[in-house]
Structure formats: C-alpha cells, structure tokens
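Lab notebook, bench 4. We co-purified these components, and the gel suggests they stay together. Before we commit to crystallization screens, I want a quick structural picture of the whole thing.
Request: model the full complex, all chains together.
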Amino acid sequence: MLMSTAERHHSLCGRLILPPPPPPPPPSSISSIFHRRRQAAASAEIEHFSVPNWSPESLAFAKEFKSIDQDMVKSDCLQVLRVVKMPQVKIVARNFMDMVASLPAMKLDKLYENSFICEAILRSLPPLAKKYVLQLLYIDGPVTAKWLEEWVLADGVSKHRVAVDRLIQLRVLTETVERKKEATYLFNPTFQRNLQKHIVHGGVLPREPMPSNIIARLPSLEDLDAYAVRQWELFLLHLISSSEAEKSTNISSSMMKVFQRGLLSQKDDKEPPKLTESGFQFLLMDTNAQLWYIVREYINNCEDLGVDTADLISFLLELSFHITGKAYNLNTLSDIQRSIIKDLADLGLVKLQQGRKESWFIPTKLATNLSISLADTSSRKQGFVVVETNFRMYAYSSSKLHCEILRLFARVEYQLPNLIVGAITKESLYKAFQNGITAEQIISFLQQNAHPRVAERTPSVPENVTDQIRLWEADLNRVEMTPAHLYDEFPSRDVFEAACDFAREYGGLLWENSKKMRLVVKAEIFTQMKEFLRRQKQ
Amino acid sequence: MTPVSAKLYTDDVSLLMVLIDTNPFFWNSVKSSLPISKFLTHVLAFLNAIVLLNQLNQVVVIATGYNSCDYIFDSSTSEGQTQRAEYLLQKLEEFVNKDESLCREDSVDGPGFSLLSGSLSMALCYIQRVFRSGPLHPHPRILCLHGSPDGPGQYVAIMNSIFSAQRSMVPIDSCVIGAQHSAFLQQASYITGGVYLKPQMLDGLFQYLSTVFATDLHSRGFLQLPKPAGVDFRASCFCHKNTIDMGYICSVCLSIFCKHQKKCSTCGSVFGQAPVQDSSTPDRKRKNPMDA
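Here is the predicted assembly.
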C-alpha cells in the first residue's frame, strides 16, 4: 500500500488558454420553435461565457480518482474546476435585432402592429430573407419548406438556412411540422398586412414636418452632420474619461455609469477608471455599432425607469423614418418620448431647438441611420487613415477621439491641425495586446477606416504591415498548455526510473527531475501510468 | 469607363433602372388582356417594394415612348420621397402627351416600335454617372418592361448598348409583356447575364416581378432564376434593317448585309467581285456578333 501515498496527483493545469467556444450546432429543422426562441434569447446576451473544456475524458479520469481516494479526488476536482473556469470573455454584441428577437412573443406581435417596425425589421434582414418576405407577401396560407428550397442553388444552402432561421426567430414566419415531416411556414398576418399596405400606398411619414414659416433658423445639413458628430464624440470622450472632456454633457451621471458598465473598470475611488478589454473593442467599432451598443444599454436601463422596452424600441425605430434636417413639433410626442428625446439629443441623434412658442426636434443622420445600420452591410463612411509599408501612419483627422483611438495601438508622434502622424511599433502593439485588443481588430479598424485614396487599392493596408501585426501577436502566444499530472514521493529510485522509461516509451514524458524524483506526464497516458505503477507495486 | 469591381458586390444596395414601354400602339393592341392601368398598378407596387427593401435602394423609371424617351421618376430626388405614385403618374401623363405631339401621321406604319435603344442608352448614361459619383455607389441593374415588337432599325444601337452594359457589368433583365418573344431582349439578357422572362399569366405580374426581378445581385449568386429555353441570335442587316438568317458580312468591321455590296457602308472597305451563286458566298448564319 506504499504506492497509494506515493501516487499523488496534481493537475498541473487544465488548459490555461481556452479555445473559443464551439459554435452552436445548426438548429435542425425539426427542433421546436420554443427551442429557437430560447437560443435567440441566449445569443442576445452581451456576455458570452467561454465554455470550459470539461470533456468526457476528463470526467472519466475524475471517476478513476474516486476509486483511489475519495477525499483527495474531491479537493483535486475542485482545483481542476477552479483552474478551468476562466474569466469570462466579453464580446460586444453588435446586432440589435437579436435583442428584438429575444422579446417575448406577445410583445413582438404587438410591435408588429406598428408599420414602421415592420419596415425596419424587413430592412434589417439578410438579403435572401428580404427576398423571401417579398415572395410570400401575397400568398395566403402556409407554404411548404420545399417550395422555398427549390429556388436555392447548392452554394446558397447555408445562406438559405440563415435567412429562414432569422425569419423564424423574429416570428415573421412560424414553422409548423406536419406529421408527414413536411415543414410549412406561415407568414405573420399582422406583419404581412402592414407590408402589403406599405407596398400599395407607398411610404408614409411618421409625422408631418412643421411648416417652414414657423421655424426661423433651420441648420443646414452640413451643420447638422457636424453637430451630430461633435455631440457623439463629446459623449464618447466623456464616456472614456470624464476629465478629458472639456464640456460636460447633460447626461446624468447615473446614466453615464450605466453606459460605462462593462467598458470601464475602477478598482477603488482614488484611481481613475481604466478601460476594460471590451472598452477597447468598443472604441474600435464603427459609429453605428457603437451607437447600437449604447442604445441597447439605454433600453436595458429604461426598464428600471418604468418605460416599456417595446415602446422604446418602437419609438427609436420610428425616429429613424423621419427625414433628416426637417423640424418636428415636440408636442406630437408623449411625455415619456419627450424625456427620451432629451437624452437622444445628448447623444447627437436629434437637435432640439426652441422658437418663440413652439419647440421642435430635428433628427440628424445618426438617427435616420439607425435602421440602416441594423443590416450587416458594410459601413458607408469615409476613412481617414493611410498606413505606409514603413509602418508609418497618417490620419487625416482633427478629432481628439480619433487621436485617442490611434493612441491605443500606435505611437502618435506629432499632430498638425488636420493630420495625426504616428508609427505602428512593436512596443505600441504589445501595449495594445496587453489591453486585450486583438491583431484582427486593429487590422480591421485600419482597413475600415482607410483613406479613400488607399481604400481603392487592394489591400488597403500594406500586407507586410498586417502580417507583422499578426506575427507580433503570435509572439505573445508562444506558451503552449498541456494537461498533465505530477508524480513524486517515489519509494525508490528504481521505481522512479522505470516509471520515467515507461512514460518515455509512450511519448508522454514532459519533465523529470531525478534528484527530487519527480516527473510530469501528459494526461493522456494517465491510465497506462496507473496500470504500470500498480504492477510495480506488486 | 469604370467597370464595377467585384469587391463592391458585398451588400444588397441596388440601383434599379426600370424602362417602361409606353408605346400607344402596343397598349392599344392588348387593351383587353392587360390594360395599362392594371399594368401600372403592378409596377408601382413593385417599385414601392424595391424602395422598401433597403433605405439606400434607388429606383429610376424611364418611359420608352414611340418617338422619344425620358426620365419620369427618380427616387433619390426630393419629389420622389413621398407620394411616389401620384408624382410618377403625373409625369407619365405629361410624357405621353409630349410623345404624342411629336408623332406625325404619315410616319406611322405597321405595328409601331418603341424607342428601346434610346431608353437603354439613357439608363446606361445614368449608371455611368452613378459609377463616377464615388466608390460607394449602389449596384445597378436595368429592368426592361417591354411589350412592343423589336424594331429592326434599332438593331445596331441596341447591340451597342448591350455591349456597353456588358462592359460595365450591368445586367439587363427583361420582362416581356407582349405576345411575341423579343429577340433583342433575349440577347440583351443573355449577353449581360440578366434574366429574361415572358410571364404566362399577366394577372399575376407583381408576383413575377417580386419573385424574379426583385432579387438583388448579391442574392443572385445563391438562387436559381429562370433561364430562357433558347435565345434567338438572329441579326438585322445594316442596309435594309431586315432580320435575316443568312447574309453577307464585312470581313473588316463585321457589318451585316442582306445583299452583296461593292463597298462596306460602315467602314468603307472595298469588297472583291462576288461569285454568281449565292451558296458559295462566305455566309454566316445565325451567328451572334458577340462571339466575333
């Protein structure tokens, strides 16, 4: 019985670096709608927990432990669990429609009574799904799944699945499976009626703009755009660091706290808050994605203030159908909407103006783009960054925010009135990687914001630069993790050496120390190792 | 000319140029089966649907008349934003009246062809302007809603438009609402990679339009759209504008003639003496010029 004490297992490490969570299995066509809805709700969560790799094999070896020593197993298992459970990786979800899809069915059906919502939802769909909606628009009664699939080429099957799943998630189509295993889809009647009405009568405006004789000074479209950008950047600066912003926004500090949650972390009150990983990721996103992130947080928060989520969503979507630069009377809004619009003005979505008697709001581009950005189309924005093959970076921008963003991963050397000059260096990138920014994010930021002159070229960012950024990132990931077991307190040198030889034979020896008689073997050969030691014992 | 690069086809923002046949002779002949008012109802619903699909989608309507053609609707202008139908119908009426005033009594003979070559060129001009507006332009395509028979006199002009569309990668979709197939449009769709369709039941025109022609260029890669059973590749001769199966062709510029000529009327090349028998002439039959 000597060996049982000698055989002490330390789980050196459950893998420290976790692979990304496996993609959810594609929903089978038979799975019930309820299941899909739950999935939608899950994917709408901002935080994606990375699933620990608690594979069946590791469970099997836990069972093995049980037969050896009950108590030890318990503590070891806990330890394993503790190691395996990694800090959650936060991914900022960009799709607002996931949130809409996660609304309860009742609320969703109620939302569809508003024709603007139907319109916005339709526009947010993938192209193929849009086509299906149009195709089914004047078909009453259910259609078979086969009827739709007949149109699809072999290349498009996955796209077809995505499109149909999206439609089902959003309850535009309801799927029923008959006994003959033939799935049929039924169009949501409210949605269908609203779109039919829209197609016959053409678009209607949510509310009439005010006649121009009442309004004295309406800003020009350029002024309005500039106002929106200024307001938004001010908000972002304020969000990142309240000290940097020269002018404070009117957003209440409690609201600001809500927005900062997840983006900033503060250890104690003395230290200034630091940007978290997702905070950095947030800054590198394009404006529309950022806007939706903030709007989502806003919506989540509003429930606490007693505003119905569905009402707020419908108001925001309705707002996106107003015409940019036209004035709309504030009196046409309800009390709740009026208080919402004040917050939106601080974000730069609308501009508030006051006349002698009336006051009105003017939607900016940010507001009218809300429903555009729902679709996954590429952002249509002019870039400003030129990266040269010698790693120098020229950013044609006067924005303080741009400068701050570039500073995240590059060394800013000097700043001219309309130009920021910097260099991408190893040190600056290491700093970025430490902050949790990935090479892919940096590259996609540079590509998305490429100056029109270089954007015409392919690739818009020189290949040697993108390759080097990836290589430098790979430099940091040189440590490889292997699950392993440590053996020590061998009764004699002979047993130790025999064990070493045995492990070497199986190709599982990772490390040995003959002086202290310790060895580390791979977790795969644990069973063989145990067999071997038991035989030695006899 | 800036050909569209493939990398821009990542999203589904489209610019749809719709060419509507307003030839009064044609609409008079189909009065009973498809009155123009019914036709317009379908088309208006279709236009609304296209604009509905994406906020950035743009629709331009060009009327193809008997004597002239003109832009009658553009959704990107401020007039096109609201009350689309009223605006379009009003402009259409103005156009038809103007087109009628240009008509001279003696010029009308036979069925009457509409000026397809003119409206195709106008559509292509508009598209070229969009191409030059910047890198972020919508993906253009042309949809011909055509009913009149082919005018052989327009053969050269139409073929030139087709090749121009092919070069700038603009597909020409054709929806033939007349009784006859249109050889011109068959070739146009075939060469430019568009869809050619002659609906069987004109009562359900909207369904045809929304199922087939509303498909954006991005989605066309994944879908099976109707393909024509056969394409009529016959050409018209340059001298008498007759549609011919067999004829003479200039070896220098590929102009087509129905009778032997001493000199090419297009490029001026002098031909040698033709043999007496027709059968031994270097004839080209049913060959499409695009292969040449």
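Chain B touches chain A at residues 7, 10-13, 44-45, 48-49, 51-56, 81-85, 134-136, 206-207, 210-211, 214-216, 218-219, 221-224 (CB under 8 Å). Worth comparing against the SEC data before the next meeting. The longest strand of chain B covers residues 14-21.
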